[in-house]
Amino acid sequence: MSSRFIALVFATGLLAACGTSTSDRALSGGAIGAGAGALGGAALGSPVTGALLGGAAGAAAGGLTDSKDIDLGKPVWRR
């Protein structure tokens, strides 16, 4: 994979991470965490493990934050 593609995927993930409800933030956080974990895991030889750990961490971070803590607007799937 080229570094340009990885940067594009990362930037898209950051822009998509949003939500006003706990479930929206957990869902988008889990998706971003899984993507980042898969990329990191692929660099270390285990993309599936990286995706599982990253997804769990992202979902936890998204679910534990309040809309007042981090608010990037409505999620893409609710626009």
Structural summary, described in words:
The radius of gyration is 13 Å and the shape is globular. With 79 residues, it is mostly helical. The protein has one domain. The longest helix has 23 residues, at 22-44. 70% of the residues lie in helices and 0% in strands. It contains three helices and no strands.
Short description:
With 79 residues, the protein is an all-alpha fold. The protein has one domain.
Number of strands: 0
What is the CA-atom radius of gyration, in angstroms? 13 Å
Number of domains: 1
Helix count, per DSSP?
Answer: 3
Helix content: 55-70%
Average per-residue pLDDT, rounded, comes to 77
Low-confidence stretches: none
> Helix/strand-derived class?
mainly alpha
User: How would a crystallographer describe the biggest sheet?
Assistant: none
Strand content: under 5%
User: What series of H and E elements makes up the topology?
Assistant: HHH
Measured between the Cα atoms of the first and last residue, the distance is: 31 Å
Backbone shape: globular
List the main descriptive attributes of the protein structure presented here.
single chain, 70% helix, 79 residues, mainly alpha
Task: Describe the secondary structure blueprint for this structure.
Layout: H1 3-16, H2 22-44, H3 47-64
